[in-house]
Hints:
This protein is α+β, with helices and mostly antiparallel strands. Helix content is 25%, strand content 24%.
Amino acid sequence: MTPRHDRVDHVVEHDDIPRRIPLIQDMTLADFPAEIGLFPLNEAMLLPHGKLPLNVFEPRYVALVEDAMREGRMIGMIQTRDWPGMGMAEPMTPGDGVFADGDGNGDGGGAGGAGGLPGGADETPPLYSVGCIGRITSMTERADGTYGITLTGLARFRLLREAGMRRGYRVARIDVSGFAADVTDPDEDVAYDRERLLESLRRFCTQQGLSTQWDALYEMDDVTLLVMLPMICPFATAEKQALLESATLAERANTLRTLLDMAGHEPDEGASPS
């Protein structure tokens, strides 16, 4: 370890200044809280080892970000059941622009727009039982008081029960013990048909009018591909949840291919809708 020096030339070892927050690669299940602030946002899925950029503008979720920065920088991303996208943040495009829509403007890779709640609607809609804990790994504060943040996925969690409200946002008791494998390095030897998956993706992109940076996709290792693709593919809430809850990377690959095949299937000409 290379020593460093303070202003009066005293040698300062890293061990003399212990971290309050462990490095991501050093985290264990004991480092996760039993209670966490929730960020319900549909069609904006975060997976372990993935990165999700968000534009946070609603006051209660600005408060959530502020509180998280003081308490381990962790936020519970979760989706709502049978509810439209909620107006508390806008998911920005993860994946370095791998997808673009047909006119090349690059907005096809986002996780879905975030519309407002209908007037007079219940603001505490039911939640799915599984979400993903994200750690704030970058943050930009704007002059208007809003934030641009990036969450890095740490581990999935099971929602045990809600624990009320805090500064306007929902808080829940959670359990991460069933997802211990999420905090370990993923197995790079994934048993799935990569070429068939990419062919399904090609058909899907053609059907949806999306252009794709195929060179970038083919250069990705299997783990990166199976984290990034499910996050940026424009699926609906239920499909995103199925990908999130897949037990293994191989199961996620099979689920992803099935969803791509279903969405990218071109109906026979002359066939009438059922």
